[in-house]
Write a structure and sequence with these properties.
Blueprint lengths: L1 H19 L8 E8 L3 E3 L3 E14 L1 E8 L4 E5 L4 E4 L2 E6 L6 E12 L3 E14 L7 E4 L1 E7 L29 E6 L3 E3 L8 E6 L8 E5 L5 E5 L7 E10 L5 E10 L2 H11 L8 E5 L2 E5 L3 E4 L12 E8 L2 E8 L7 E8 L5 E6 L4 E6 L2 E5 L9 E2 L3 H42 L3
Parallel strand pairs: 1-10, 2-11, 14-18
Antiparallel strand pairs: 1-3, 3-8, 4-7, 4-9, 5-8, 6-7, 9-11, 12-15, 13-14, 16-17, 17-18, 19-20, 20-21, 21-24, 22-23, 24-25, 25-26, 26-27, 27-28
Amino acid sequence: MKRKFVFGVMLLATVLSLLLIPGEAQAASAMVEFTTSTSEVSTGSEFTVVCRVTSSEVFSDVEMKVLYDASIMEFVSGGRKVSGEDGILQITSTENEDEVKKRTYSLRFKALKAGVGAVEMGKRMTVRNLEGDSFSVSANRVTLTVKDPESSEETPDPASVTPAPTGAPSLSTNNKLKSLRFDCLSMTPKFDTNVLEYTVKVDCDTNILYFNYTAAHNKAAVRIKNNEELLLGENDVRIVVTAESGDKRVYKLKVIKESESETRVREQQEKGKSDITFSVYEKEGSIFIQNQYQFQVVDVKDDSILPSGYVKTSVDLEGKSVTAYTMENDLDNNYLLMYLKGTGTEPVLYQYDRMERTVQRYTGTMTQKVNKGGNVAQEKELIPKTGAWLYAALVSMAVIILILLIVILNMVLRRKLGRGKRELDDMDF
């Protein structure tokens, strides 16, 4: 009987636990559909590609990249929510107060030359509702054929064709790029067909480097290597252009991916905000701390600058090893000292609070707290723990002495009063 009771309790507990486990919510989905009224256009004519975002559930904001072949078509217009050029468009429809199940964007293009080009969605696509919940997104692509009314076949650039021996086919040795553009923060230097090395910077959310190109010869093959699964820091990406003859040309890219803190600080600076939260990032081999102000972390060269009892250590802040100084007998103290250099100033000691993640100017027993909103707090004198105990002891002793004085004084007065009374009783009036 007892065994059955225990088994029943265990079974009930198992059922209740399963009921209490929250099920994983099914993410809402959205569809991006590109459509056009025709699949074939003539050079010089304009055409419209409709981008329609739909979902079975209501949504508010849309952010997406649209890729197109800039060698075949030219972007003309798309409304105030569409911007971009050179093969990459940005659709930004955010901060909407209404929720809908469909949003439509009209993209106007002009056909440049004969060929086949596509319009499709880039990998960076966001659809979300007013609560900030993101939808899973799928998309199609639309392909257009551009024809030259005067010629059924594109004539290659004569300069790109190498004369061939009599009786043998002519094979082009042109392995150059005519244009190259990336979906990135910056690219240096500016693209030049004869420059083979570039530095490209992307934000922390970029995992794939998208690019748009035009080969100098229409039969050259272009292939990109290592542009997926970008890692934090430097990435080695190569673009290999193979001519019709088999000759290869390699464009080397040093792709620098920002950390989350670097991206956050940069975006806040670009928006002109002053309420920058505490961040740590690395730039040109140096560690910087960003609060309202920017500080560079430097090493103390003269140990006499440090208070007595402090030793050098390091602390991990947002994945960065930052030089700091702590009390030798209290390595786990929440307060550390850092030697920081502000913009245009000499380095001085600052106090870092591990708990509040704030930086304070260190002045011995006085601190001047730098708040993230830009207000400077009043200076407050800090009483060390040992001083507080000493102060309390002195106050207690003073109280005890005062009480003793009152008792002694009371005894003396009572004795004098008693003696005076006896003298009065002995007097004969």
